[in-house]
């Protein structure tokens, strides 16, 4: 059974956002690539081939791997 309208006239989502805003938070929207998009996949394959055929491939890969280890784990 549907709920009756609330006195504030706001939807559940609007109330949720208002509560978060009152708590000092702000909404941030993040757009990212649609990896299921055929155009994206085709561009990704072209980019991978270009990297693979690059004379500095080993240096490029080492650089990316160094970034993924940052900050270094303490053992």
TrEMBL record:
UniProt superkingdom: Bacteria
Any one Pfam family match given in the protein's UniProt record, by short name: MazE-like
Name this polypeptide is given: Antitoxin MazE-like protein
């Amino acid at each position: 059974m549907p709920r009756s309208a609330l006195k504030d006239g706001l939807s559940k989502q609007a109330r949720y956002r208002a509560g978060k805003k009152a708590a000092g938070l702000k909404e941030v929207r993040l757009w990212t690539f649609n990896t299921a998009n055929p155009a994206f996949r085709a561009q990704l394959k072209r980019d991978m081939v270009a990297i693979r055929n690059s004379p500095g491939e080993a240096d490029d890969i080492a650089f990316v791997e160094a970034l993924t280890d940052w900050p270094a784990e303490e053992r």
